[in-house]
Amino acid sequence: MKWNQIPLGPLQTNCYILSDDQTCIIFDPGEEPQKLIQYIQTKKLQPLAVLLTHAHFDHIGALDAIREHYQIPAYIHQREAKWLSDPALNGSQRWFPDSPMRLKPAEHVLTSEQELTIGSFHFQLFETPGHSPGSISYYLKEKGMLFSGDVLFLNSIGRTDLPGGNHDELLQSIENKLLPLPDDTIVCPGHGPVTTIGDERVSNPFL
Fold first, then answer.
1. What whole-number distance in Å separates Cα of residue 104 and Cα of residue 134?
2. What are the strands, taking DSSP E only, across the chain?
3. 177-196 core/surface letters (b: 16 or more CB in 10 A; e: else)
4. Distance between CA atoms of 58 and 97, rounded to whole angstroms?
5. Does residue 136 surpass a pLDDT of 90?
6. Which fold has domain 2-203?
7. Rounded to whole angstroms, how far apart are CA atoms 137 and 150?
8. Distances (CA, A) of 66 to 32, 128, 137
9. C-beta of residue 175 within 8 angstroms of C-beta of residue 183
10. CA angle at residue 58 from 53 to 61, to 5 degrees?
11. Furthest CA-CA distance within the chain
């Protein structure tokens, strides 16, 4: 199993392509759909689904284009299911008033922490609110990888000054759901370089 980090759009939001020999999962296609399509075609992969860590505009900008091109479903937490079609909630109305984002509903709405299997990919889902109400972290135990969205970063944590953000809730999410993972767990954040749970436990000044 392989993975690739592809920063997209003006905020350089990390999209991740997690792949086996033939298929792949797409995390947070924030912008530049043609860049993603070109990469997937070059690797001769067949996407199976899009997994969203949350529904802020910089993580969903290419979602509809990717879904339509590959005819694949998207997964999102129920607390942000309505955000895809609401520019005020996903933030695009504030930052891009001339081109607000109104996307199609997600095909799969996640209602709780659970095991999720798509093709050969098996994830454990953690509800990690704080940065946003419906933030999800996806844990791939067999590879020791965590796709944390904007919850946990290298030496930082997610901002909580956006609608639905809560600083105390974010710290609780990190402490109760993420820090108990093994030290060598690779953290794949929504922005910036990857890190590990062990490194953040020791050196993150916010924790």
1. 17
2. 2-8, 13-19, 23-27, 46-51, 74-77, 108-110, 115-118, 121-127, 136-140, 145-149, 152-153, 156-157, 186-189, 195-196
3. bbbebeeebebbbbbeebbb
4. 14
5. yes
6. Metallo-beta-lactamase; Chain A (3.60.15)
7. 9
8. 10, 26, 21
9. no
10. 95
11. 45
- For residue 5, give the 3-state DSSP assignment: strand
Q: Which two tokens stand for residue 171?
A: 């710290």
Computed over every residue of the chain, the mean pLDDT equals: 96
Q: Which of 149, 107, 105 is nearest to 127 (CA)?
A: 149
Q: How confident is the model at residue 41 (pLDDT cuts 50, 70, 90)?
A: very high
Compute the distance between CA of residue 121 and CA of residue 128 in angstroms, rounded to an integer.
Answer: 21
Give pLDDT, residue 96: 83
Domain map (residue ranges) of the chain: 2-203
Report pTM. 0.96
Q: For residue 3, what are the CA distances in angstroms to 6, 143, 161, 190?
A: 10, 10, 31, 14
Q: What does the alpha-carbon distance between residue 60 and residue 83 come to, in Å, rounded to a whole number?
A: 10
pLDDT, one tens digit per residue, over 141-150 is 999 999 999 9
How much of the chain, in percent, has pLDDT values that exceed 70? 100
